[in-house]
Amino acid sequence: MLNRRNMLAVGALTLGGAMGVKGLLFGDRTAFSAVNQRVIGSAAHVHGVRPARIGAAPAVAPFSVRMPVPPVLRPMASTADADIYRIDIRPANIEILPGVSTPVFTYGGQLVGPTIRARTGRRVMIRYGNGLDRPTNVHLHGGHVEADNDGHPMEVIQPGRARWYNYPNRQQGATLWYHDHSHHTEAENVYRGLHGFYLVDDDSERSLRLPQGEYDVPIMLRDALFDADGGMVFGGNPAERGTMLANGKPQPYFPVAARKYRFRLLNSATERTFLLNLGGAEMTQIASDGGLLPAPVPRTEIRLSSAERVEVVVDFSRYPVGTQLVLSDGVTPLLRFDVVRRAVDFSRVPDRLRPLPVPPPATVMREVTLGFDMAGAPVGLVNGKTFDPNRVDFQVRRGTTEIWNITNKDSEFGFTHNFHMHLVQFQVLDRDGRSPSPDDAGRKDTVLVPPGTSVRVQATFADYLGRYVYHCHFLEHSSLGMMAQMEIVP
Fold first, then answer.
1. What is the pLDDT of residues 264-275, one digit of tens each?
2. Residue 126 lies in a domain
3. How confident is the model at residue 253, as a pLDDT?
């Protein structure tokens, strides 16, 4: 395995060819990444990816394909206290658009990757083998894990090699996900398919009687741009990624029974914010990034930036068989629910879910700024510095509680960012001194930061020592260096 200094040098050389683009537009819908321009020119050299052919993608009629549910992976072995898995990282040709073969990167040969269902208090060990022709790694997003198992951007799996990740699952039930985090290539690798669900099931939730089994459905939302041959185009302006995918299928439909469903919604797009609605119908939010809320919240619109998760319960018993409800991003359809049958339903949404723990008093206050240096080639900055894995930006005492004030300094250019902290969940205290929005509720690990605004978050750093990163989770931005490093010390 390359050491961090050598890997940084390799990354710098790789990125050097990308810096001919001077102008960028970053935001919820308009973003242009210099890193992406490199990939257009180099795609022919990426194993399993054919060069893009200019032209319109094959047309797909909305709601003409069914949304699949990512299969749950079975352990290859189990012990008294652990489940053991194997997942191969490899290129594959997948039918995303009907009748068209698209080269992608995959976990286990499928898009979306297989779902891991872990249990609170029971370890999971996963062997990942790298069958790509490039280094990669795996980050358990939202996972509370040791530094050596976090998927640090510089700790990669070389082609033809494998490594184990050990996850103790000492956290409450939550919808997490796993994805590539190799520095400078994280955006491309995730865009090309390296993403999957990791669901932590918590026995303490059983008495709540929330929808479960086939009525507990993870849904990964993202965007993509396809060329005339159906190949995925990574590069150019992400706002042009006009094909919306739900669990890897374009604007699909999903048959449902006239009863309650629990939907775990994840935004895995590398640089997009969805504004979700169900045509005015009520969605009952029960959880956010870090698990259940204190109480259910009725919602008709939910903002979800890259990497954020939200869990909602939709009660289809309110609608007659034959009803069709469309989940949309603003006015753009994403997914249609078709009520096709009646079903017995013993599930419920109780008035109380899980109390939000009161954190200890904060003893440290920190300022974190996100922005770009646009003087020449664009460079991502955190507190005025680009990412350097040999530099520790913050030293954090284990067991302490801190308040971080995160500010987006890119008001001049209107660049939107979001903020993700590894290792811990946090609580959003306020936005620009005002109450948080409904989208900030519960335990979070990723939060949207619009241009010229600030968000204060509070976190307690317990258990593990070592180096972890925090960064903008618009992955094109972190690819350009908008990432920093903290070290948890005794």
1. 999 999 999 999
2. yes
3. 98
Alpha carbon distance 406, 256 (integer Å):
41
Residues 94 and 166 in one domain: yes
* Nearest of 214, 317, 312 to residue 259 by alpha carbon: 317
Prior bond to 424 cis, omega within 30? Answer: no
Could you tell me what percent of the chain has a pLDDT over 90? Answer: 85
Question: In whole angstroms, what separates CA 162 from the centre of its chain?
Answer: 23
**355 part of a folded domain:** no
Q: How far is CA 83 from CA 106, 171, 174, 260, in A?
A: 22, 16, 18, 30
Question: Domain tally for the chain?
Answer: 2
Tell me the pLDDT band of 238, cut-offs 50, 70 and 90. Answer: confident
Tokens of 387: 């990412």
Are both 224 and 197 inside the same structural domain? Answer: no
The answer to whether residues 15 and 188 touch, using CB atoms and an 8 Å cutoff, is no
Q: What is the pLDDT of residue 49?
A: 74
Q: What are the CA-CA distances from residue 246 to residues 251, 303, 389 (Å)?
A: 7, 16, 35
Amino acid residing at 389:
P
Report which DSSP code applies to 78.
E
Determine the structural domain holding residue 282 and report its residue range. 208-342
Rg, C-alpha atoms of the chain: 21
Q: What is the pLDDT of residues 152-177, one digit of tens each?
A: 999 999 999 999 999 999 999 999 99
Q: Are residues 175 and 215 in the same domain?
A: no
Tokens 């339903």 correspond to what residue? 345
Distance of CA 197 to the CA centre of its chain: 9
- Give yes or no: residues 54 and 200 share one domain: yes
Cβ neighbours, 10 Å, residue 257: 18
Same domain? For 188 and 286 the reply is no
pLDDT of residue 354: 97
Residues 195 and 291 in one domain: no
pLDDT confidence of residue 76: 98
What is the 3-state secondary structure of 189-242? HHHCCCEEEEEEECHHHHHHCCCCHHHEEEEEEEEECECCCCCECCCCCHHHCC
Q: What percent of the chain has pLDDT over 70?
A: 89
- Given 205, 226, 244, the domain boundary residue is 205
Query: Would 489 be classed as within a structural domain?
Result: no
Cβ atoms of 482 and 471 within 8 Å: the answer is yes
Please, which residues bridge with residue 338 across strands? 255, 324
Please count the helices (runs of H) and the strands (runs of E) in the chain: 4, 31
Write the CATH number for 246.
Answer: 2.60.40.420
Q: Rounded distance, CA 68 to CA 16, Å?
A: 40
Is the residue at 54 inside a domain? yes
- Residue reference for tokens 């935004």: 267
